[in-house]
Amino acid sequence: MSRPESLAPMISPESGSGAVRSPKTAELVARTLRRMVVDGQLKDGDFLPHEADLIAHFQVSRPTLREAVRVLESERLVEVRRGSRTGAKVCVPGPEIVARPAGLLLALSGTTLADVMTARTAIEPAAAKLLAENGTDEAHQELRRLVEDVPRAYAAGTLAPASALLHRRMVELSGNATLGIIAGMLHEIGERHTAAAISGADSENRVAKAEYAKLIKSYARLVDLVEVRRGDAVEAHWRRHMEAASAAMLRGHEKTRVRDIMD
């Protein structure tokens, strides 16, 4: 974890160097620092420049600077350890930063699990096609490893989290950042829905062997089609898979709402 040696090379005139004169000074300072994170001038694990350097650069008071840092802290872009002399550390967030608020919004709006499954059925086949056509060899290899992990998860009674992770990573590995964020937002809901569907189907929280065999066969087909880069074929296959999964998972949960399965 590094701390920039000098503030001057990091903040260009275009990014707002020099004095900041505005009634909302703290927000403008926060905007400049935020932009530095977005542009990669400040990376995950870096520390913000020393407080004295920031105060001199922006020509603001210490309370104003600290207010700006609190703005970034509220956005989970920095982590501040009270009493520490190292200052604020940059923490680049993942999809989890929006997952909880998104889940809460869906819960508050009365969204059903059927609604979520419809969205997933629209998103995942398109992502599978992108992964097949544009995904790296490393991404294809990771997908295969995730599929190979499923039998162990089934034996251990942890099929729900393993299956949910496979679905999420398949979308993230597609290379489309927007779809990946959406998949991350829906991950916890999908995992809890899968767990609820499995627990409702079997007292030992396991799907029947026949259904499990179909699942594994479908996952294997997904990987095979992805690896030979047959985009249209994998998209059609995964749409059929999601439609079948939706029908099975919504059995008994036709009117179940997101808020019914979330804490």
From TrEMBL:
Residue ranges occupied by any HTH gntR-type domain in the UniProt entry: 23-93
Database matches in Pfam families: FCD (PF07729), GntR (PF00392)
SMART domains documented for this protein: FCD (SM00895), HTH_GNTR (SM00345)
Record has Transcription as a keyword: yes
Keyword annotations: DNA-binding, Transcription, Transcription regulation
Region (Disordered): 1-23
InterPro entries membership: GntR_C, TF_FadR/GntR_C, Tscrpt_reg_HTH_GntR, WH-like_DNA-bd_sf, WH_DNA-bd_sf
Keyword Transcription among record annotations: yes
Protein name: GntR family transcriptional regulator
